[in-house]
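Researcher: Last one for today. Full complex below.
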Amino acid sequence: MKKFYSQFDFQSELLFEALTSEEKKLVYDTMEPLIIKKGSLLFYEEGIPTGIFQIKKGKAKKFKRGFSGTEQIFYIYTTGDVLGYHALFGEERYQDSCEALEDLEVNFIAKDVFFQLLLDIPALQRTFIKNIGHEFGVLANIIAVLAQKNLNARLAINLLILENRFQKHDNTSGIDLTREDLANIIGTSPESLGRSLKQFKDEGIIEIDKRVIFIKNEDLIFKLLNITGTENTP
Amino acid sequence: MKKFYSQFDFQSELLFEALTSEEKKLVYDTMEPLIIKKGSLLFYEEGIPTGIFQIKKGKAKKFKRGFSGTEQIFYIYTTGDVLGYHALFGEERYQDSCEALEDLEVNFIAKDVFFQLLLDIPALQRTFIKNIGHEFGVLANIIAVLAQKNLNARLAINLLILENRFQKHDNTSGIDLTREDLANIIGTSPESLGRSLKQFKDEGIIEIDKRVIFIKNEDLIFKLLNITGTENTP
DNA sequence: TCAAAAACATAACATTTGTTATGTTTTTAT
DNA sequence: ATAAAAACATAACAAATGTTATGTTTTTGA
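Model: Here's the assembly. Have a good evening.
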């Protein structure tokens, strides 16, 4: 089941992990700490790239506005994730927006500094480009889910993905997102999302406290998805 | 409205266009012509990359199997398009599959030859990576459409996209795909697709000959989508 | 060219999802 | 701490989509 999660995970927390400790020091020394308030944008569609970010603490959503205005969230970044580098590899503008879902502590690497790092550390460019390739596959998988799965299945899949990500990165339990954001991830209205959540609650799959969702029975979810999750659950 | 189309187009037919005629010659001299039979794969998920392709004539579908087996098509390549390079920029395996929809004439550049070209032509690597960035945005837009639009809107958008692409590349009129493939692009069943096509036909938006779909009234489509297509239609 | 296979069109019914509406709970800002 | 605003839960009804079924047309391969 490890494969299940990696199919939907950018793995952008690993970008600096392959480096030697010496190289890592080089990278981390160039970082400037920043505080970004809940609701502020790290970057926005059509904006000019200034550098890359690594999240030290907190969550952020990456989204794009469809041409009729509504927000489509296609990724939630959490602690450790590196982001904002696509635009630097040749693009002029950002292709999407990124907003802090809570007060954020981030490390920033300015554009010029980042390019110097790429020159100083030969393995780095390859690692980043390789990851962009991986992320490409993740988006393709997200497309397959959105196009082929019904609401309950989309919700189930995204609950697994989100719990896994939050647990892995922030070591927190439970999924804490607004109903609107969650609906904008799985492609439905908050009302329909609410109905599915209620079903899951009634079936004992999840519990809800305030707005935080806790997965109570992972096996039931895998069953719902017809995945044999019992042999090798994450 | 040019922007509308480019939001959904990989623009991978332009990759060699920015080169000087001398550089172009260098590239085209390395190409080996191949014939690929309808139904054969140019490459497949998990396969080891061997090189890149440029389509001289014909159509191919790029798809991925969701983990419950069904095929999700996320791009249709046509004449002029270059493909298969993602996997070469750092990935070990292909992330998706590509199948000939009709007998295909392609030009092939072997992996090693391609890497040598990247060294010989400095601008080339940047162009390719820039395009991968652009393609990333295209996938995000596809996600937004699949998540937010109902069936008729998804069909309408994809009819526009496909007609535009076939016209531009192959200079053929009409959209000639199996109902199953078209359904696997827009994320529905062939039966539901048929119902929407019939509606469009009854409203005078399209005409169908055999299985080929012709757009008869583009304005009605833009109206359906609430896009002001009248001022500057493509 | 002809028979078999595949693809297509269409309809009826079932199910899922969207929408509108109302009241409650939680968060935010003063 | 409190009032106002935002977010949430839920239900009833409407609309969209999925599913099953049947007959026709088109394509394929011998």
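The longest strand of chain B covers residues 51-57. Strands of chain B lie at 32-36, 41-43, 51-57, 60-65, 71-77, 82-83, 97-100, 104-110, 206-209, 212-215.
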